[in-house]
Amino acid sequence: MKKLILSLCMVLALGACKDEKKDTAQADTRLVVKIGASLPLSGDMTETGKNLQAAMALALNDEKAKQNLKYDYQLVFEDDQYDVKKALSNWNLFKSVKDIDAIFTLWGTMGRIASDFAEKNKIIHMSCGLSSTVAEGFYNFNNATKLDTHATKMADFYKSKDVKKLAVFAYQCVETDELFPVLRQKLKERNIDIIAEVQINPTDMDLTLAMAKVKELNPDMLHVQLIPPQAGIFAKTLKKLDWNIEIGNLNDLLLSADYFDGAYIFQDDTGTPEFAQHFVDETGQRVIGCSANFYDNVRLIIDAYEHIGDGKTLPTHEQVVTYILNNKHFNSSFGQYDIDEEGHINTPSIVKQLENGQLKEIEND
Fold it and tell me: What is the 3-state secondary structure (H, E, C) of the chain?
């Protein structure tokens, strides 16, 4: 169901506002807006979680430096190790104890579950994930490249590499479940056959037999969607089988970059060069997929509150959502801004190549 879009004049005219919140623990007397993020801050994906935590902090600092803010914006972080049960516990903590106004989630699996939670509890939800369903419902936004955009980029790239036979190794999750039906159709339109699809489970620690069988089929290239620890096991098995073959991947292999030198990585655009340099200078970290998206998501929340709020009362979550949906002129760190009526903020799909653990620019049409 499409979101109900209210006009901006209606948003500004709405008189109903939330109960005022003040942080009595601080001298700052401004009303508080809290943004909570449940992220993998420990475990196999710590680097990703810490990177996005830094992106959110940078966005808040940048907004503070640019203007005298009407509200006191606070970031609250909880570690979920990218575990659904821990994330659910964090979201409930955000709602019942920490009085959070907006929750941030990473990737489609978490985003999809959080969408239901946010809708039920009328909390603003901002995500960055490969899923066409995360933005469903009034309170949900997904700031990430759309599935169709990615699938088209992949299929065109594989055709440019003269691939006729493609083999796929992938873990089962929301992202792959939604991506591959779209990708199959795009490949079929370009006369590229998927000759094998191997599903890898989190408990699979020996991939030798499955990979050996696919090697015998002599594919032209592999598309691999794996995360640690299976990504590392896959890379070691490639060497064990003496299998030298080109690999394509959507985002995930960046978590295991040292293993996949030469792989082609399809990913969401990571922002303008100016943003990338600013991010590196201020955080000391490289820009990864979702860095710019999380940065912009914080700024979108602040932009909405500052435009529709008077500083004396807090706008309702409904007013904030409606403002974001109607704001077509946001100054995005991508240099362009495209939000649809469902709350999906689309960004371009690009392809880069891993070289010595770093991403190398290649030509993108």
Answer: CCCCCCCHHHHHHCCCEECCCECCCCCCCCEEEEEEEEECCCCCCHHHHHHHHHHHHHHHHHHHHHCCCCCEEEEEEEECCCCHHHHHHHHHHHHHCCCCCEEEEEHHHHHHHHHHHHHHHCCEEEEECCCCCCCCCCCEEEECCCHHHHHHHHHHHHHHCCCCEEEEEEECCHHHHHHHHHHHHHHHHCCCEEEEEEEECCCCCCCHHHHHHHHHCCCCEEEEECCCCHHHHHHHHHHHCCCCCCEEEECHHHHHHHHCCCCEEEEECCCCHHHHHHHHHHHCCCCCCCHHHHHHHHHHHHHHHHHHCCCCCEECHHHHHHHHHHCCCCCCCCCCCCECCCCEECCCEEEEEEECCEEEECCCC
For 296-332, how does the pLDDT look when each residue is reduced to its tens digit (9 = 90+)?
999 999 999 999 999 999 999 999 999 999 998 899 9
In tens, the pLDDT along 135-163 reads 999 999 999 999 899 999 999 999 999 99
Token pair for 312: 């004396």
pLDDT of 112 over the 70 cut:
yes
Task: Say which residues have a Cβ less than 8 Å from residue 23's Cβ, sequence separation at least 6.
Answer: 32, 72, 74
Question: Could you count the other beta carbons within 10 Å of the beta carbon of residue 82?
Answer: 23
Owner of token pair 């620890």:
229
Whether the link from the prior residue into 273 is cis, omega within 30° of 0, is: no
CB atoms within 10 A of CB 89: 14
**What integer is the mean pLDDT of 182-199?**
96
CA distance 178 to 192: 19
pTM of the model: 0.78
Longest dimension (CA), the chain: 69
- Quote the Cα angle for 288-230-262, to 5°: 55
Structure tokens at 166: 């493609």
Q: What is the C-alpha separation between 234 and 15, in angstroms, rounded?
A: 57
